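Field notebook, page 434. I keep forgetting to write these up properly, so this time I am using the form the group agreed on. The chain and the ligand, pyridoxal-5'-phosphate, are recorded exactly as supplied. Prediction of the bound pose follows.
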Amino acid sequence: MKLYSTKNTAKFVSLKEAVFKGLPEDNGLYMPESLPRLPDSFIKNLKDYSFQDIGFEICKHLFTGAIPENDLREIIENSITFPAPVVSLDDETNILELFHGPSLAFKDFGARFMAQLMSYFNRGDDRELVILVATSGDTGGAVAAGFFKTPGIRVVILYPSGKVSHLQEKQLTTLGENVSAIEVDGTFDDCQALVKKAFLDENLTAKIRLSSANSINIARLIPQSFYYFEAFKQLVDNGRPVVFCVPSGNFGNLTAGLFAKRMGLPIHRFIAATNVNDVVPEYLKSGVYTPRPSVPTLSNAMDVGNPSNFARMLDLYCSTWNNLKEEISGYAFSDEETMAAVREVFEKYNYVIDPHGAVGYLAFRQFQKDNPGNFNGVILETAHPSKFLPDVESILQQKIDVPERLAILANKEKRAKRLGVAYEPFKDWLLNEF
Ligand SMILES: *Cc1c(COP(=O)(O)O)cnc(C)c1O
């Protein structure tokens, strides 16, 4: 398997290089040289494959030559460790629950898979790999859990003191073992500046093998294509065209769906669902892409003004607006509409949906209004509603269930090294620790 940069399609790197580098030097994004069409017999007989089997089949065809099959099987078994069940609301509307992992959001799939791949590629090296991550909350939790107890890898998470939620802080600071947390007396930007400075510090990188767990790493995208197949497998085959509706921010999830379709999964259409940060729905409507500063909303994991995976979407469709809008419909909704949708889903179906999933629900309903005929719709539920407990409880005016893996965090002890924004103490801490 080889990968190119969206900014230079003639220069290739190995999977190992793409995974460790994250970003090409030209600031493009890595893309697989080809997305192989999977055998018809596999797609027709998905029901005979477990979720792990599905991941294995996809990687077997995609990673040709990069990883021996035995090792690949082990990587998949260690990364796909929780299910992605489909729950049916009515005969056209299904919810794909992607929140059964440790941090209760779909990002757990990508984080675990990336951790396993890095650990695998690092095996021959006797130096530990140290992953540095700055987080404003959510990504850090998924990365911390994803890398937890991964052999040969230590993780250092920097977060801004007092600026992440209590629960998010617990997710970052209570794991221990190979995961360390640094509480920075500053902002998220200060955390990011410390990490950047460390990567550029040759004196430090000569002593410690550093890497990042960037959200645009191709290793995070690939496993996200597995659950499109897994969802398709669980749908009742009623002959209706299958439509996937994806609540989106940086559009990694939707891009992974486009990968799945390219690999042969018969998806009729995608719906890009956003909050008022609607640059992609606007592009689909007008053909003009206008990035702009993001606006805070209730579905805050989608508050993105210049989606990083847009370059990958364009690359897949030869940068042609006509091709993209043939495959993807886009809709955007306000916080008021989102709150009303959380209430509607609860009242109609007795299902508690989170604000991100609610944006997806609205988009699918609008798509049904705009398009004649019946569909088999799948809305990606990207996080568990209890991640947004105060908002969801105030919208529904009642208490909701909190999964045990979240509830037990409350009693765990926080462990974090507290530092200021100056670089030298951070560097000294790293040198002392590793
Ligand atoms: C990250 C995230 C999103 C956005 O996903 P993208 O792949 O960036 O489009 C949506 N919902 C939740 C809950 C998230 O954490």
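OBSERVATIONS:
- The pocket of pyridoxal-5'-phosphate is lined by residues 105, 107, 138, 247-253, 301-302, 356, 382-383 (CB under 6 Å).
- The chain is about 45% helix and 15% strand.
FOLLOW-UP: compare against the apo run.
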